[in-house]
Amino acid sequence: MPKDSGIGAASKRREDVRFLTGAGNYTDDINVYGQAYVYFLRSDVAHGRINSIDTSAASEMPGVVRVFTGDDFEGVGGLPCGWQVTDRFGQPMQEPGHPVLARGKVRHVGDPIAAVVADTLQQARDAAEAIELDIEELPAVVDMKAALNEGAAKVHDELPSNLCYDWGFVEDNKAAVDEAIKNAAHVTTLELINNRLVANPMEPRVAVGDYNRANDESTLYTTSQNPHVIRLLMGAFVLGIPEHKLRVVAPDVGGGFGTKIFHYAEEAFVTFASRKLNRAVKWTASRSEAFMSDAHGRDHVTKIELALDADNNFTAIRTETYANMGAYLSTFAPSVPTWLHGTLMAGNYKTPLIYVNVKAVFTNTVPVDAYRGAGRPEATYQLERVVDKAARELGVDPIALRRQNFISEFPYATPVAVEYDTGNYFATMDKLEEIADLAGFDARRKESEAKGMLRGLGINCYIEACGIAPSNLVGQLGARAGLYDAATVRVNATGSISVMVGAHSHGQGHETAFPQVVADMLGIDESMIEIVHGDSSKIPFGMGTYGSRSLAVCGSAMVRATEKIIKKAKKIASHLLEASEGDIELKDGKFSVAGTDKSVAWGDVTLAAYVPHNYPLEDIEPGLEETAFYDPSNFTYPSGAYCCEVELDPETGKVTIERFAAADDFGNVVNPMIVEGQVHGGIGQGIGQALLENCVYDSEGQLLSASYMDYAMPRAEDVPFYVVDHSCATPCTHNPLGVKGCGEAGAIGSPPAVVNAVIDAIQSGGKNVLHIDMPLSPQRVWAAMQD
Amino acid sequence: MYAFDFEKPTTVAEAVAALADDEAQPLSGGQTLIPTLKQRLAMPSKLVSLTGIAEMQGVCTNDAGQLCIGGATPHAVVAAEAASKYPALSALASNIGDPAVRNRGTIGGSVANNDPAACYPSAVLASGATVVTNNREIAADDYFQGLFSTALEEGEIITEVRFPVPQAANYQKFVQPASRFALVGVFVAKFADGVRVAVTGASNDGVFRWTEAEKALSANFSPDALNGLSVSADGMIGDLHGTPEYRAHLIAVMTKRAVAAAS
Amino acid sequence: MAKVSMTVNGRAVSGDVAGNRLLVEFLREDLRMTGTHVGCDTSQCGACVVHVNGKAVKSCTMLAHEAEGATITTIEGIASPDGTMSRVQQAFQDHHGLQCGFCTPGMVMTATKLLEQNPTPTEAEVRHALEGNICRCTGYHNIVKAILAASGQDVSKIAAE
Questions:
Q1: Closest-CA residue in chain A for B97?
Q2: In this structure, is residue A755 part of a structural domain?
């Protein structure tokens, strides 16, 4: 019986009304009186030495307030990197500077060279054309392996090479893994590319810097997933503005998918310029600008080997990955191919020996950082593709091979440092077989074949790690930040509640789901609870939303704070009821004395807290407001099994997704409607990666897929309805809600399922194609079938 | 966009006069021109809107039985009003861009721009249509002159496109996955005196007629007539979305499908 | 600069705007009606769709002066004056057809027009009608479902096998 409120209810989203009626408040909707506009002149070459920048003519253009160049940032910090990886040899990664505006060299197409601030955007853009640049073009490095060749052009002259780090994990396992592979009964090898993607939230990035001379305070309105992280990075490391004089507001944000985690040059610029000019400065990215300035995602080139014994048990995995960092280290870039990738290489399987090697490489391309899933999709893709290939080589059923190697006992310590607390991979696979109607596949294949089409079935399992933690551990791994979160529960005198949370909602529906939790705990109506987020001046210091962490981490903080509220409210109630505190029960918004009919309503207790006339002032303080910080003791490990069924037109190579099913284990679920929506969206993006999306540079470092004319976004006609299920729940064992996180699962679980299905379809047509790199565009599929 | 003036005449004559100014440029539906202006790839001094000219709007049939479409007629109107008279043309129009683009984009704008991946040029060429301008009539075979290049002179306006209506016709579009323009589009039109086949999206020279297929289909209008025929990859477009070989291959596939659908 | 006048959501408005002013800029910046969004610059994403003289149009690809004398409806004008959401808006909320909300105004404007022209579309027709509206959050599942529901069709069986 579905609930109609509280935890487990599919409560409709309260935020929808403003979004559906045009009343949303996105950053570009914010205009500050008297604001000026900035236009960034960006490099149109991938690599060049800046000989001179002459801004004199531009400065004289109508409406121009001031033209800034890199020299204006003398003495100002560069954009910091938030994660330091230590390499195989115990040395820290190479960490080049990242200026706000380019100095000395430009290092990728889109690298900002100068910033023109003018009364109107048109004037700023006109003036930018009058800037005279003398840039000596240098050879660009684009291909990662070529970038590591002796004599390759260096992205950063001051570094020994283009290698950021050479990471081995777990280095002590290497010899044993090599030995196991040498002695294996069978080794399946696969070389593959995880295609570079552009996150493309539909709202382009925007930043408005507003300086208030009266109190020397700066406000930055920005399209961010984590306002406090931006305040810390920009205030402490870039501009040196004390945090109490810096407010960062991320209002309604139109999607993030990782790319709005990072601290960007444009944010620092508008804040800096507004202080210099004593005038608000606004920047709104065009989509074309977004393609060359938003951090990109993925871009791994990998070789994976899977060793099996004579009984088809997995005995070892060895992988070697080249991970593109782009021209500079974006905020969390170094962590993605390492700690968010290597630690997931066990997947759902009890492979005893694993060794992961990652070489991170600088190239003359846009920086690469976390995009939905971040490292985990790359791990899952290579593992699940190689397992599928192994099944084909060995002539065994791909589901049976997976089942045979599933981890079956929990907790399970993997050979790649993490410990899965709970899960049931057999249950999700059973559920998948049912909801995907695998039994009916042969009949559907025959129908397709009767039309001259090929049909394929692809299976995938995934495990992911969410709510990255605990802080002391990630600190040892190189994180330069904590990974807790925080919530303040402020109960008002009349009993309504404001919950200030560190998590940020940019589509996840926190404003609806979070109150469901608090309402359930207190037994009051959800509508009495409001979530406040996105403004550093209103909320406690929280780390924001990414990595499917909001409910698991910030939600847990909210639970802890609410527990404190209950504890104090019970004390007040016990005073009002003249009963012992231990006898007070809270149920349905009412405090009662156990075993009696004496009770006091929620609102009476909250009023007493703020009008403390009849109140134990000697024991407790007035008021009812509590804050909790929550630092998880482990990751959470959502898992699942996915199935994709495709039809392939052998004459054109065009693939159509006919059916898609997902059986996920997210632990407990607060709002199933929102959870399913998250899975749908993730699957849509995963299908995009598998079939459509590709961010491509030519050999000179020019971005070829620089707009929606060439970067293929999934549209409604490219996807089917999805069948999703989350009933196989093994609750997380270490957070108070038993939740695991659901935001990235779809994007992690779907690409291998799609590719496995296409390979299956091609094989069914009698062509021995074993791999095609994503995206499986019609041309690539057709070409593969011609060989 | 750079700054420009805007003028919206109500007659062709006024429009022609307005376009006589230096660097003046006609603006039809703007679905290609406005994005181009946003990228600052053009710098007109003045845009002369053609959307307010009543005589350039609408679909009708002339005494010769030709379908006459005003140059400023949006795709959505063609899709609706050509449906009974020339279904293949209506179907083509109803699959250009998306609903909002079809409400603004016009046949004259598309034919004047002659984007190598646009749909309309294939219909114009395969139908043997006549492009009517403010001062002359141009046969389709003379009109298209390569990538973004046409017989139009500076300031010349397409006021109408006249389509002879074939006995049978079909357009097959294989979309480029990002832009949804034609990666390859083939329009096949069967007339009493023969079959015409026009291909868009594929060639570095823009829309072209596949004469070998026309000959075979004129003798036998069936997909089998195309067996063994292929287009050379030489001169075909190669880009992120398709190699020249792939495009050449798709031309044969799409032509067969168009014939099958038309017959 | 020249004067342009039009009716927006029933209100007569005018402004002195440059020739290159886009309709969406006029709406967002001059009228400060920020419900209509801009998500791309190549006329593809559809976040900017409004109705001009009863037709869905991408307001980022139309000059403000082209709308002289036109009757315009934006997302702000879709709900009833008393705030009651339209059938399409309500279906989007009921079926979780939006997440971040950025593409939503354009989706609602396109869907509203579709249902006027085709009151009971098939799933395929709905998907085709959304060709020019990109959503990055929902995977389209609940958008298509919401539009089918708004058309009065039973959506309870969708993907519930």
A1: A709
A2: yes
Classified as helix, coil or strand, A660 is strand
Q: What is the CATH number of the domain that holds A70?
A: 3.90.1170.50
**Please, what is the angle between helix C141-150 and helix C104-117, to 10°?**
40
Asked if A81 and A330 touch (Cβ cutoff 8 Å), the reply is yes
Question: For residue A284, what is the nearest residue in chain C, using CA coordinates?
Answer: C38
| C24 pLDDT above the threshold of 90 | yes
Which one, of C105, C91, C113, C159, lies nearest residue C135 by Cα?
C105
Domain stop point among A227, A258, A284 = A284
- Residues 19 through 48 of chain A touching chain C, CB cutoff 8 Å: 19-26, 28-29, 31
Is A161 part of a structural domain of the chain?
A: yes
Closest of B160, B145, B139 to residue B57, by C-alpha? B160
Q: Measured between CB atoms, which of C42, C63, C66 is closest to B35?
A: C42
Give the model confidence (pLDDT) of A94-127 as tens digits.
Answer: 999 999 999 999 999 999 999 999 999 999 999 9
Q: How far apart are CA B137 and CA B154, in angstroms?
A: 16
Provide the 3-class DSSP secondary structure of residue A123: helix
Separation CA A209–CA A272 (nearest Å): 8
What's the topology of domain C87-150? DNA polymerase; domain 1 (1.10.150)
Determine the distance in angstroms separating the CA of A273 from the nearest CA of chain C, rounded to an integer. Answer: 23
- Tell me if chain C has a CB within 8 Å of the CB of B202: no
Query: According to the model, what pLDDT value does residue A2 have?
Result: 62
Q: Does one domain contain both A188 and A66?
A: no
Rounded mean pLDDT, A255-268: 98
Chains touching chain A, criterion 3+ CB pairs below 8 Å:
B, C
Provide the β-strand partners of residue B150.
B144
Q: What is residue A47's predicted lDDT score, i.e. its pLDDT? A: 98
Q: What's the mean pLDDT in A411-432? A: 97
pLDDT bin (cut points 50, 70, 90) of residue C161 is very low
Q: Are B123 and B89 in contact (CB under 8 A)?
A: yes
Instruction: With respect to residue A200, please indicate whether it lies within any of the assigned structural domains.
Output: no
Q: Which residues of C are less than 8 Å from B51 in CB distance?
A: 66
Side-by-side strand order, sheet with B158-163 = B59-61, B67-70, B158-163, B130-133, B137-139
Q: Which residues of A395-410 are buried (b: 16+ CB within 10 A; e: fewer)?
A: eeebbebbbbbbbeee
Strands A639-648, A655-665: pairing kind: antiparallel
What is the arithmetic mean of pLDDT over B41-50?
95
Say whether C98 and A16 touch across the interface (CB within 8 A): yes
- The complex's ipTM works out to 0.98
Tokens 């799409």 sit at which residue? B254
SS3 A403: helix
Alpha carbon distances (Å) from A503 to A226, A484, A701: 7, 10, 37
The whole-model pTM stands at: 0.97
Q: What percent of chain B clears pLDDT 90, i.e. is strictly above it?
A: 99
Q: What is the pLDDT of residues A652-663, one digit of tens each?
A: 999 999 999 999
* Rounded distance between C-alpha atoms, residue A513 and residue A185, angstroms: 51
- The answer to whether residues A341 and A349 touch, using CB atoms and an 8 Å cutoff, is no
Question: Cβ separation of B240 and A783 shorter than 8 Å?
Answer: no
Number of domains in chain A: 4
- The yes/no answer on whether domain B168-262 falls in CATH 3.30.390.50 is yes
**Averaged pLDDT for residues A731-750:** 97
d(CA A373, CA A679): 12
**Predicted confidence band at C160 (pLDDT cuts at 50, 70, 90)?**
low
Query: With bands split at pLDDT 50, 70 and 90, how would you rate the model's confidence at A468?
Result: confident
- The model's pLDDT over B65-110, given as tens digits with 9 standing for 90+, comes to 999 999 999 999 999 999 999 999 999 999 999 999 999 999 999 9
Angle ∠(A376,A380,A384) on CA atoms, nearest 5: 180
